[in-house]
User: What shape does this take?
Amino acid sequence: MKRYGLSINRAFLENELDKKAKLIEFLKDGEKLVLAEVTCRKENKGKNGECRKKVKNLPKNLRLIGDDNKKRNFLAHCGFNEYGSYIRRKGGNLYLSLIENYAEEMKEFVLSL
Assistant: This one.
């Protein structure tokens, strides 16, 4: 990280993780969803119907279409943007992961830096 002057990213990552931790109340135990759906639930105070349509109606390989600036959002959200990430609740813990096709695309981007 020092090579690229990215040591400041630690503060950004902690901030992103704090924001994601607040989403736990909008997930049922064992539920794994695209982050955009859970964020939508929070913004709509738990009204799941519209949020589910927003994400679930998209073909799995096109979930990134809501993100016009993927590289910027990847960096701004420490890799976990709303359309490229899953969030899962297991007990009192949250787990974040990248959607596979998004992970491959971003891997190429990071290696190109």
